[in-house]
Design goal:
36% of the residues lie in helices and 20% in strands. By secondary structure, it is α+β, with helices and mostly antiparallel strands. The strands form five sheets. Strands 1, 2, 5, 6, 7, 8, 9, 10 and 11 form a nine-stranded mixed β-sheet that branches. Strands 12-13-16-14-15 form a five-stranded mixed β-sheet, sandwiched between helices. A five-stranded mixed β-sheet has the order 18-17-19-20-24, with helices on both faces. α3 packs antiparallel against α5, α4 crosses α5 and α12 packs across α18. The protein is globular and about 75 Å long.
Length: 644
């Protein structure tokens, strides 16, 4: 503990700071929007859109438009009731000014304005205002256009009438420009917004959401409108898979004040793609509504299988995992007073939601199965196959455990482990091929860097059941080396390395191998990614030599920058690396492995667009060719450094 003291510093009552108004938001933005990264930047848009969606949920809004302007400012327009313009007598200010300048003020705190609502604890509009260079709001109300402007949260002038409009027109228009002194990046990504807005439209059937990009050279627009709501959401998510039966199963009802909507359909894959929402807010960690759904599903299918002799009396009941194999499902509940565990709204805690979902799904799914015996039988048969595969996987897992116990050695033979045993200090490089593995073993720092070379391309887990996965030597080596186990056995406290670094060649084959490994980690060890333990190494593409000096460039932009600085002439010797094996150990250490000089990319999951991540993996790694071709055609313009 440091004993240094500053004798001039005082700590008394007057040193306690009181952050008034929106100062607290500007001082600690991460507390309110999660981060000041690109993710936090996009969250500003979601907060304003959430308010408009709440109007739609209340039955007053049909259309929302989001515009990205040339200067990366954003406009959100809705045709709802419009934020009230009258005086809020408690604050002595117009209600609209209260909404944009006072934290925890709005129509979502029991005042009867909304039956259900999303938004960020009712602080959305004021937080967006606080974190913007400027924000202008216009309200269309009874033939008049009201306007007010704020700069960095400060009101610039009183609410005033700036024009007239059709007396029938109502709604709110918010335009804001994010503050570049707070955010790391202020350029909006069209695709990120598109994915989130599409999801919002699926969850609010009948609502139209239009996204318009006005930026020069990037002009595009799309409209999302789904009368089928979450049924269409399931169809959309299953488009890269082969559905087991044609119609999406849909359950809807209200119980104990909780409105429940569930849509589901099985496909030919082996994963479980279930997404849960509360008042249109995603709950990545599930909660009581998800627990109710899973209980209803397991109970109902087992009862059906037994009563129809698909499952004999003495046979083991189907587990939830068996029944959910190949399932795509959306659980959406609307509840007036949602209680979330933690500030980030990751998990629903309302006990009544569990009973409501269980009741609605049990009753309506039972009816569906009785009315559709062919579909019911096909699901039960798939579940029985899953049960057998799971049992085979368990035996393979147990056999592996017994072997390691008998042999007294738990780590794979080709692993070159590090000597430090503190996981916080340790990192493991997953290296493609024995040649690069040999260079990496020579180059590494033996104290903290482990090397695991893999031979060829690992199994594509998108097309394999657990028993096949446990039978694959390369995957088994990774599972054993990491120490956490996978799937239901996963335990992050047993992780042996806090950095898992995928190091492959900077070519098409290397990218494919990286994708196969990321598919495995995402499907069976997603918590490693969520907690920031997975990285991609970035080996250089070019080596430049001139007058006995050496530079490395990681892309063509950097190459051109270096050549401009050193002069473009005949003395330049440029080498284009095709693989890690071309580098000697010293070069590999200096460019790719030395913590002081290397470039690593951390792999992250954006929970707000997790359904799109799932769809991307299925599209790229699944069996259907047509969706993959469409994906490649759409994204080909973004490809750089493609080996031909």
């Amino acid at each position: 503990m440091s004993t240094d003291t500053n004798t001039n510093a005082e700590y008394g009552a007057d040193q306690i700071q009181i952050l008034e108004g929106l100062e607290a938001v500007r001082k600690r933005p991460g507390m309110y929007i999660g981060s000041t990264s690109v993710r936090g930047l996009h969250h500003l848009v979601y907060e304003i859109v959430d308010n408009a969606v709440d109007e739609a949920l209340a039955g007053y809004c049909d259309t929302i438009e989001v515009q990205i302007h040339e200067d990366n400012s954003i406009t959100v327009i809705d045709d709802g009731r419009g934020i009230p313009v009258g005086i809020n007598h408690k604050a002595g200010l117009p209600a609209v000014e209260v909404v944009f300048t006072v934290l925890h003020a709005g129509g979502k705190f029991g005042g009867g304005g909304y039956k259900v609502s999303g938004g960020l604890h009712g602080v959305g509009a004021s937080v967006v205002n606080a974190l913007s260079n400027w924000l202008e709001v216009q309200i269309f109300h009874e033939g008049k256009v009201y306007q007010q402007r704020y700069e960095r949260g400060n009101t610039m002038y009183p609410l005033k009438v700036v024009g007239e409009c059709d007396p029938e027109k109502s709604g709110t228009q918010v335009t804001f420009s994010p503050d570049g002194s707070i955010f790391e990046e202020t350029v909006y990504d069209y695709d990120t917004l598109k994915q989130r807005l599409r999801e919002m439209a699926f969850l609010t059937k009948g609502l139209k959401i239009r996204l318009v990009d006005e930026r020069s050279g990037m002009e595009q627009e799309e409209e999302f409108h789904y009368e089928g709501g979450i049924k269409e959401f399931v169809t959309y998510l299953n488009r890269s898979k082969e559905a087991l039966y044609p119609d999406v199963i849909y359950c809807e009802g209200e119980k104990n004040g909780v409105y429940v909507e569930v849509a589901m359909q099985h496909n030919d894959s082996y994963g479980d793609s279930t997404y849960s929402f509360v008042n249109n807010i995603t709950t990545p960690e599930g909660g009581t509504h998800l627990a109710g759904f899973r209980n209803a599903l397991t109970k109902t299918f087992n009862e059906y299988a037994k009563s129809n002799k698909i499952l004999k009396e003495n046979e083991t009941a189907l587990s939830g995992d068996d029944i959910r194999e190949g399932l795509t499902a959306i659980i959406s509940v609307k509840i007036s007073e949602p209680q979330f565990e933690g500030q980030t709204k990751q998990k629903l805690g309302n006990s009544e939601a569990r009973g409501a979902v269980d009741s609605v799904v049990s009753e309506q799914l039972t009816y569906f199965l009785e009315q559709n015996p062919v579909v019911a039988k096909s699901i039960c048969e798939k579940s029985l196959l899953a049960q057998r595969a799971r049992e085979a996987a368990r035996k393979a897992r147990d056999l592996t455990r017994r072997k390691t116990a008998l042999e007294g050695m738990s780590l794979p033979g080709k692993l070159a482990d590090c000597s430090d045993k503190d996981p916080k200090n340790c990192e493991i490089f997953i290296v493609e091929g024995d040649s690069a593995g040999g260079s990496a073993k020579t180059a590494r720092s033996r104290a903290t860097q482990a090397i695991l070379p893999l031979r060829g391309k690992i199994l594509n887990v998108e097309k394999a059941r657990l028993d096949k996965i446990y039978g694959n030597a390369e995957i088994k080596a990774m599972i054993t080396a990491f120490g956490t186990g996978i799937h239901d056995d996963f335990d992050i406290s047993k992780l042996r390395y806090h950095k898992i670094i995928i190091m492959t060649d900077a070519d098409v084959d290397g990218a494919h191998i990286s994708t196969l490994m990321l598919t495995f980690l995402y499907r069976f060890m997603p918590e490693l990614i969520r907690q920031g333990h997975v990285y991609l190494a970035k080996p250089p593409l070019f080596k430049i030599e001139k007058n006995k000096k050496v530079w490395y460039a990681y892309d063509e932009i950097e190459l051109n920058k270096i050549l401009t600085e050193i002069g473009r002439d005949g003395n330049n010797k440029i080498q284009r690396y095709k693989g890690l094996g071309e580098m000697d150990p010293e070069q590999l250490w200096e460019t790719t492995m030395d913590p002081e000089t290397r470039v690593l990319e951390r792999v992250t999951i954006d929970e707000e667009t997790s359904s799109e991540i799932d769809l991307t993996f299925t599209t790229l790694m699944g069996d259907k060719v047509e969706p993959r071709r469409e994906f490649i055609e759409t994204n080909a313009k973004y490809v750089q450094n493609l080996d031909i």
